[in-house]
Amino acid sequence: MANVMKPLMNWPKWHHYLYVRASFIHFVQSQSQSPLFSTCNVRRLPSFTASPSGYRQAHFRSGAALKSRESPLPLDQSEGDSDSDEKTRKSRNEKKREARRAVRWAMDLAKFSAPQIKRILRVASTEQEVYEAVMLAKRLGPDVREGKRRQFSYIGRLLREVKPELMDGLIQATKDGDQTKFQALSGSELSATEDVDEEVEETEYEDDEESSEDNIALADRWFDGLVNKDVDISKEIYSLSEVDFDRQELRGLVRNVQSIREKRSKSDEGEGKVNTDVVRAERSLTRFLRDLAKQLHS
Prior knowledge:
The protein is 79% helix and 0% strand.
């Protein structure tokens, strides 16, 4: 009995559902035949059910749009910026190299004797201020390291406008005692005033002779021992620790005197020129040794 009554009780609900469904279908069919509901006028409603692939495509498109905002500058502009940065870096590095080279010049000049410094600076066309600064650096003792460092930096700033090739050549020629190379670098400028300057330099050393005969005697003994290859004299000089001097320059001056003397003894050709070279070479070595003796006893 219950099985019979339950369907009868639910009949009104089913009847209402079927009626509404049939009415909706009839409405749709009738409206689809209307020209206002034709396919040309029907807008396709957007679908809010996005597939995973569609989502990924939209995401990638938005990412591409963001990347385009962060995309690099045009090629010409980026290359121009990189070139300017590279030039800036090169100029800074070049300035640092020039500054270090000028300080190295100052340190080399301070190892030479006063006449040698004058000759180098005269050929390099520097001011009197440079010579005075170098002489001040020479007077500073080895215990004044910070003061010497600052003085060398100051001299380096004064020497930055000097021709690098010329200054390197002059310093190296002076170290080697190569008068021929020095004259080739100096050209006519040195030869025109060389005699006058040598007279001035001789006068300076004559004054030194009057003031310190002990230094002269010591320098002469060193001179004879070095030129004649006396081992004891060589050890005595090169083992000096009280004075800071350029041993390589001294060896070059000694070799120059020895080679010119040997050349004079083997050949009579150009005897006048050889004698002049011998005098100049011996004078350079003598000045170096006298200056060394003076520093040792000061």
